Amino acid sequence: MWLSAVRFGTLQTRDKSQRITRKKFAEPLRQVGSVETMTNRTLKNDRFLRAIRRQPVRQTPIWIMRQAGRYLPEYREARKQAGSFLTLCQTPELACKVTLQPLERYALDAAIIFSDILVIPDAMGLGLTMVESIGPVFENPITRTDDIRRLGVPDPESDLGYVLAAVRTTVDHLAGSVPLIGFSGSPWTLAVYMIEGRSKTDFSKILSFAESNPKELHELLRILSRSVSVYLTAKAKAGASALMIFDTWGGLLTTRQYQEFSLQFMTRIVKELAHSVPDTPVILFTKGGGKWLESMAQSGCHAIGIDWTTDIGEARSRVGDSVALQGNLNPDSLKNSDREIENETAGILAAFGRGSGHIFNLGHGIKPEIDPAKVSVLVHAVQDMSRRYHEWVPTSVKRRADYSSKR
Ligand code: CP3
User: Fold this and answer.
1) Which of 337-343's residues contact partners 24+ apart within 8 Å by CB, and which partners?
2) CATH of the domain at 348
3) Which of 65, 66, 88, 122 for a ligand 1 pocket mutation test, highest count of atoms within 8 Å of Cβ?
4) N or C end of the chain: smaller count of CB under 10 Å?
């Protein structure tokens, strides 16, 4: 549609007497350096993508990890109607519907495609099921080193086509309102589930496997890195505007092991994505990774997600302006009073301080028991209180800054 492909603004010129005259103009977004996805769509709200690139924004963007989930009654209803969580994931229209649910309630600055990190191991033949009160369980977990040799890299179109279809449908429905985030688990976090066989475990199998079979584990992590790279590339090409890698279990590792089993492989993926989809920014999130921010920043990622145990102000001074930061309200804060939520939000905004490069989020996924009204309190608090930290540059100046800014 023509209207979505243009940005209206004011052109300043000088007349003969050197007085400034302002003329309304409309020009293609592409020419003003605005952010576009691989499918050449233009975005009405590109605050999230601007913040990832540390470009000026009017207010701090916000989205919420697990924003489409069980705390929403409409999600629980959709899951009941679908019959199961996996049917929701595997039916593109339903995955799209659920992805959009939180955006209908709240003025969020990004959508995240409804899916799960475990669809990759499922596509490798491990047989994912979701068991009530346990969570994900694999029918065929990796129990012997021989199991690793049999694994192949899933083809995104033929093995995970339902996810790509969900991305395409959702990008169509979003119609450029906000960007869509595509995601994957990190190789290490996927390997944890593939070897443990289920969630809610004590991690004894994976940790002893890492001790006794490091070579075989490296082989598994290499296959997973390749799988994640091609999968995320396909998601970006299907229309995802940014990519996030969830390294939920990186924090289990020692510093040496983190480098060897997790960060090394995430870095490899980031480098591959920089070639395959160079315009798509990547966010790395290691839960419990606060002590490794400097080395995470060296991976080439655009942003680091931090959990609530790290002070975001300290994190910022450690990474400087090499990357943006995403986070980091304690997910349990949403159980508090409205006033307390506002105060904690104010504290995080103040700790990050002035300027762009902050994407507000929780420090981990929203919990099912949270009252949806509390999310409204949080979103409004970020919108109202963050403006004072941003110096909004007038359109004409911003346009010049956009020209000169890199990816
Ligand atoms: O953020 C979003 O809105 C997108 C949806 C999303 C889900 N899982 C849906 C989901 C995302 C980004 C994930 C990622 C994911 N899945 C991670 C990494 C992020 C994190 O939380 O650390 C992990 C470790 C998984 C694996 C997984 N999937 C677990 C451990 C569970 C059970 C956890 C629980 O809360 O019961 C799931 C199931 C799952 N994935 C649900 C949702 C909405 C709940 C399923 C249901 O409806 O019963």
Assistant:
1) 338/374, 338/377, 341/374, 341/377, 341/378, 341/381, 342/377, 342/381, 342/385
2) 3.20.20.210
3) 66
4) N
C-alpha separations of 175 from 199, 265, 376 in Å: 36, 34, 23
Residue 24 inside a domain? The answer is no
Q: Is the CB of 117 under 6 A from ligand 1?
A: yes
Residue nearest to atom 45 of ligand 1 (CA): 85
Domain count, the chain: 1
Structure tokens at 287: 């839960």
- State the pTM of this model: 0.89
State the residue range of the domain holding 272.
46-399
Backbone angles phi, psi at 326, to 5 degrees: -120, 130
CA 313, CA 319: separation in Å to the nearest integer? 10
In a domain, 148, yes or no: yes
Q: Is 162 exposed, middle or buried (0-12, 13-18, 19+ CB in 10 A)?
A: middle
Catalytic residue among 53, 105, 116, 198: 116
Angle ∠(252,325,201) on CA atoms, nearest 5: 20
Residue 37 maps to a domain: no
- Which residues lie across from 42 on neighbouring strands? 36
Is 359 in contact with 394 (CB distance < 8 Å)?
no
Q: Tell me how many degrees the CA angle 368-370-373 measures, rounded to the nearest 5.
A: 135
Full pLDDT tens readout for the chain, 407 residues = 222 222 223 333 333 333 333 333 232 333 233 444 444 458 999 999 999 999 999 999 999 999 999 999 999 999 999 999 999 999 999 999 999 999 999 999 999 999 999 999 999 999 999 998 899 999 999 999 999 999 999 999 999 999 999 999 999 999 999 999 999 999 999 999 999 999 988 999 999 999 999 999 999 999 999 999 999 999 999 999 999 999 999 999 999 999 999 999 999 999 999 999 999 999 999 999 999 999 999 999 999 999 999 999 999 999 999 999 999 999 999 999 999 999 999 999 999 999 999 999 999 999 999 999 999 999 999 999 999 999 866 555 555 544 444 33
Q: Is the CB of 347 under 6 A from ligand 1?
A: no
Residue 399 annotated in active site: no
Q: Is the CB of 381 under 6 A from ligand 1?
A: no
Q: Specify if 16 maps to a domain.
A: no
Tokens at 401, concatenated: 């800054």
**Which residues of 80-140 form beta strands (DSSP E)?**
111-112, 128-131, 135-138
**In the structure encoding, which two tokens stand for residue 161, read together?**
């086509």
